[in-house]
Amino acid sequence: MKTTILNRIIVIILFLFFYSCESKSTDNNDSITDETPKIEQLVSVATGDDLAAIPSSANYIKEQSLKGQNSSPYGYVIRYPEGFGTDGKAYPILIYLHGSGSRGNSDVTAEDINKVDTGGGMGSIKNNLWNPNVVVPIIAPQCPKGTNWQPQKVKEFIEFVIDASGNAINENRIYLAGFSMGGMGVWDYLDANGYENSLVASVVTMAGTRAENGKNIEALKLMPFWVFHGLRDQTVNANRSINLVEKFRALSPEQQHQKLTLFTQNDTQNHTRGNHRIDYGVFFRELWEANQAGDFFNEDIMNWMLQYRRND
Asked: Most buried in the list 82, 102, 269, 290, measured by CB within 10 Å?
């Protein structure tokens, strides 16, 4: 009888010993798991609280300035809402860099300035298709004939816009978009300035980047960007955009603030603007139903850009 009781006591002691060891082992494993570093997203979506006072719709007014009429390095067209500059509100703003076909010398031929008032966001306002969640003025500078977008002059233009607008612009919400030569201009600008010195919160490019772009890929870790290209583009090869984004993703594969959308079909089956001219489709929403590869084109471009702001 005593032997049986003793055996039971021994069994209980052994059970408690092994249970204690298992618990410690589990605790140690939990401790190791908890200490595993988590990937930090370097760019976060903004709250939008600084947009609360901005109206959701407005009547847009067009103004233009010919090259040489003021200190701007470019002539330009601006479309802005009534009250801009007088209502005390600080608006987000989009600066749009056009393609090569819209170059002009408005200081010599005034009519040239009208060329920049057609594509992308400017055209969407004219066609009543501009509908971001809040009102966003658009400014389109004009690159002179025979030249390309120069990073230093683009920066001078952005600084001119800030100074000329007083307190009417939210300086943490300046956005930059470009088509074709303008897309190349955007990447040249980012190559030269990185994120810290770019003054812009996010960018969109359409069918435009140079083959050699990417010298400053490291700095793009803080720049949200969305790249669009048509795979049938015979003017600017889509591999230029693909290679640039792949360079970024190879460097920072964990970051989620960059997007690449490729249109895989005849992007212009319903109109005659050519496979290269996707700026109409992206801003006018004509390509939303096109066959796509990469990131799905399922949201308004300006609203996507408005998700991000600088915190300078």
From this structure: 102
**Distance, CA of 77 to CA of 116 (rounded, Å):** 7
pLDDT tens-digit series, residues 286-300? 888 888 999 999 999
DSSP state letters, 161-207? HHHHTTTSEEEEEEEEEEETHHHHHHHHHHHHHTTTTT--SEEEEES
Domain ranges of the chain: 54-305
Selected from 3.10.410.10, 1.10.3720.10, 3.10.350.10, 3.40.50.1820, the CATH number assigned to the domain covering 54-305 reads: 3.40.50.1820
Token pair for residue 152?
A: 């230093």
In 3D, which of 298, 279, 280 has the Cα closest to residue 289? Answer: 298
CB 287 within 8 A of CB 267: yes
**Phi, psi (degrees; rounded to nearest 5) at 255:** -80, 145
Angle at 83 between CA 282 and CA 112, to 5 degrees: 50
CA distance 119 to 117: 7
Q: Using the 8-state DSSP alphabet, how is residue 47 labeled?
A: -
Give the closest residue to 258 by CA, choosing from 211, 300, 226, 289.
226
Torsion of CA 265, 266, 267, 270, to 10 degrees: -130
What is the tens place of the pLDDT at every residue in 169-190?
Answer: 999 999 999 999 999 999 999 9
* Spatial distance between the Cα atoms of 181 and 231, rounded to a whole number of angstroms: 17
Cα separation, 70 vs 65, whole angstroms: 8
Cα–Cα distance, 285 to 282 (Å, whole number)? 5
